Amino acid sequence: MTRSALLDRGRAAFHEHRWGAAFEALTEAGDDDALEAADLERLSTATLLLGREDAGIDLATQAHEAYLGIEDAAGAARCATWIGLYLGGRGDDALADGWLSRAQRVAARSDAATATATGLLLVAAALDQLYSGDPEAAERTFADAFAAAERVHDRDAMTLAQLGQGQALLMLGSAGAGLALLDEAMVSVTAGEVSPVASGIVYCSVIGTCHLAFDVRRAQQWTIALDHWCGERPDMVMFTGQCQAHRAALYCLHGAWTDAMAAARVAQERARIGDWSGSFGAWYQEGEVHRLRGEFDAAEQAFHQAGESGYPPQPGLALLRLAERRVPSARSLIHEAVEHADPSTRRQLLVAVVEIELAAGDLAAARRAVDELAASGAGEAPMMQALAAECEAAVRLEEGDAADALARARAAWRTWQELDMPYEAARCRVLAARARRALGDDDAASMDLEAARAVFVELGAVPDVLKVDELAQPVPAGAAMPLTTREVEVVRLVAEGKTNRAIAGELYLSERTVDRHLSNVFAKLGISSRAAATAYAYEHALIPARGSHGEMA
Fold first, then answer.
1. Domains, the chain, ranges and CATH?
2. Contact between 150 and 128 (Cβ < 8 Å)
3. What is the pTM of this model?
4. Is the pLDDT confidence value at 379 over 50?
């Protein structure tokens, strides 16, 4: 076949998204004579999409040099910018900065090149601001990038700018405006207006952002679209690992844990053959399934593999430590993760903070986390509402307000049912059972526990089955119902002789709330006086015993 025919075949295959055929034809055409800059750029793209990263970067470098050779500053700057963006995404910051500086220098050679390259270069600058923790500056720069790209009809830069601006707005708490921009970016992608690499970036970034915004319905819709997009390009490797990792996350949420594990394993294989960007999600989702099933050693190994990608495997690892009853370690891990998290990631971590702090007995810390979660500006996504209600129910239960806890647990359960998320729904049934028991409705509590246990058994959630069995143990006749953490605090202060007003001031509560706590204590213990509560505190070692001269015994 002549070189001209090979070039025609390679260009046609590239246009039809047949990356393997494009790679073969263009590579063979380049054996006899050097490829033109545009064909080198096509070959670089096809090579990267096939998962051959180093070769793809080398070819992009050759394309950059070829554009310089024909004095096409705009083309050279474009290649240099894409190389910088790719290396930055991989974590090679020094090399990325070098290429982006070169792109700026080359683009400055002519007004036309400057106008053409400005949008994409501003996207790169805005990404640096976003990842450096300055979403306000990033939002403005992304807006400037879109305007610059729109002037020269650079659809790739326009779409990436919309993506970035949407992410920045979500970080700033403007969920509605942010998600609208993500949707608009996806319209350009699904309409075929964006190049293959930019399309894959937008697909995967939008899905990940939707998960951070707790918008699982959007995440599911775009994951289905990404799966279809990848399926139309069967020889593509890049983005396919991320696609399978996103599938695993959705399967896990919907209780299809076997399917989640299968998707995670496929994602790991795709990462092995070239899509390194899917590695974290692949191993993290496997770790989550193992953790939920009680396979703690396997979860440990999977989370370790996820951490090798450079991202902390949280909150999964902290919750694993909690399941292992290593509460101090769980607290240390989750506190460190929260401290270094961006606002969107922090919201996800707060849910785990509540559970861990309650297990540690730090009700005040759990309350702070719940209040921050409620005020975090994550929007009105049903999943966010359910998580906030579930966390509030857990804290209210420990604060002694079982009636309110029951109402919130039931509301969260209904939302989890609507979202088809059986594991979280069953956890809410357990919360409801504990609240009903605190209210003296043992029959209804037993029904909730039985329903939750059936779900946990079906899912294979062994640790949760054991917890339910422990909760379902009958309370011995005459035994006092356990007090919540807040009720214990109130009893301690009563035993110290403090008035309700003084107790309210010390615990930052209203006197009415203190009255309610005392009423609950009296009902649970079957007593009717502060003196009896004081006696109970000493008998059950809730406060230290004192010697005859008022000294600590």
1. 37-109 (1.25.40), 111-238 (1.25.40.10), 381-474 (1.25.40.10), 485-539 (1.10.10.10)
2. no
3. 0.82
4. yes
